[in-house]
Amino acid sequence: MKNVKVLGSGCANCRNTLQLVAEVARAKGIAIQIEKIEELREIMSYGVLSTPGVVIDGQLVHAGGVPARSKVEGWF
């Protein structure tokens, strides 16, 4: 199971990223534990200055804007 964190304040892009990641994982049959992080201090701890950010198993894989579906599919 992959541990996924979507970092962001709750804006539309952050919600869309959360939904996209969940959809792609489900479509590929990948078990994930997804968490939405809105605490600014925790977001900054990953070095993210532009949200949304995506962290998979402790590794920052994306920051700034909604990622392309093909990019998300590459993560899984």
The side-by-side strand order for the widest beta sheet comes to 2-1-3-4
Number of domains: 1
Q: How many alpha or pi helices? A: 3
Mean pLDDT across the residues is 96
Shape descriptor reads globular
- How much helicity do the residues have? 25-40%
What would CATH call the homologous superfamily? Answer: Glutaredoxin
Quickly describe the structure.
With 76 residues, this protein is of the alpha+beta class. The chain is built from 3 helices and 4 strands.
What do these coordinates show?
This protein has three helices and four strands. It has helices spanning 12-28, 40-45, 69-75, and strands spanning 2-7, 32-37, 53-56, 59-63. 29% of the residues are buried. The chain has a four-stranded mixed sheet with strand order 2-1-3-4. The protein is globular and about 30 Å long.
How is this fold's topology laid out?
Elements: E1 2-7, H1 12-28, E2 32-37, H2 40-45, E3 53-56, E4 59-63, H3 69-75
Parallel strand pairs: 1-2
Antiparallel strand pairs: 1-3, 3-4
Q: Key features?
A:
about 80 residues; alpha+beta; Glutaredoxin; four-stranded mixed β-sheet; 3 helices; 4 strands; about 40% helix; globular
